[in-house]
Amino acid sequence: MTTPEEEYERLRRNWPDLFDNPPGAWSVILDEFPAEGGPYGICYRDQYLILLRDPVRFPDGRIGAYLRAVQANRQAGAAVLATCDGRAVLMRHFRHATREWHWEIPRGSPEPGETPEQTARRELEEEIGVPARSIEFLGDFYADTGVVGSKAGLFWADVAHPRDSHPEEGIDRIELFSPQQLDLMLDRGEITDSFTMAALLHARRRGLAPFSF
Question: 158 with 94, same domain?
Fold first, then answer.
């Protein structure tokens, strides 16, 4: 059985760019595990997520650990803003982490070997029951740069009317919203999901339907 430190070193060899120290880095990842400030290494790992405690040197010279999470396959998957008949498709999804219901766009983690677009297409069909008639890449996105070290792809898609929701996956409603309704929801704090807000911003900036007014 390997130790957390040995697993960490294996990850460093396989994904060296995750351990880069660019010029001016505020926290510098150390090449070796120091005696103080530990434990270091991989704290947790499953098929989706890896939790690391990096050995770092802070600007004031202190040595300690910095916690971060990366997806087990490097990609945080994809999220897709689907539109139908001039309205955006949102799902009301219960999230364990927040213990709340959130209005969200479809998203999910990649299957082995999938590209972000393939993930977006699959998740779209799985979660709202219809395929993308057309799809466009909006940009890459980090959901939380303070903790999460993997990026996701954002997409826009045109779809037919969505089908049933999926209570077994925590999705109890799928509804269509006009741009004006989305603005009101944002003003009232009813849309708080970062993937959804980022996709809406990209779509507006590009003038994609139905945001081309």
Answer: yes
d(Cα 97, Cα 27) in Å, to the nearest integer?
27
**Do the beta carbons of residue 117 and residue 124 sit within 8 Å?**
no
Q: CATH number, domain at 197?
A: 3.90.79.10
Domain of 39 in residue numbering reads as: 4-71
By C-alpha distance, which of 171, 154, 172, 143 is closest to 49? 143
Map tokens 């996105």 to a residue.
Answer: 141
Q: How many domains does the chain have?
A: 2
Residue-wise pLDDT tens digits, 101-139: 999 999 999 888 899 999 999 999 999 999 999 999 999
25, 107: one domain:
no
Asked whether residue 47 falls in the same domain as residue 103, the answer is: no
User: Domain check: are 171 and 97 in the same one?
Assistant: yes
Nearest to 195 by CA among 154, 149, 145, 135: 154
Strand 78-84 and strand 63-71: the pairing is unpaired
Nearest alpha carbon to residue 152 among 185, 187, 104: 104
Give residue 213's pLDDT band: very low, low, confident or very high (50, 70, 90). low
Spatial distance between the Cα atoms of 15 and 79, rounded to a whole number of angstroms: 24
Query: To the nearest 5 percent, what fractions of the chain are helix, strand and coil?
Result: 25, 35, 40
Instruction: Give 119-145 as a 3 state SS string.
Output: HHHHHHHHHHCCCEEEEEEEEEECCCC
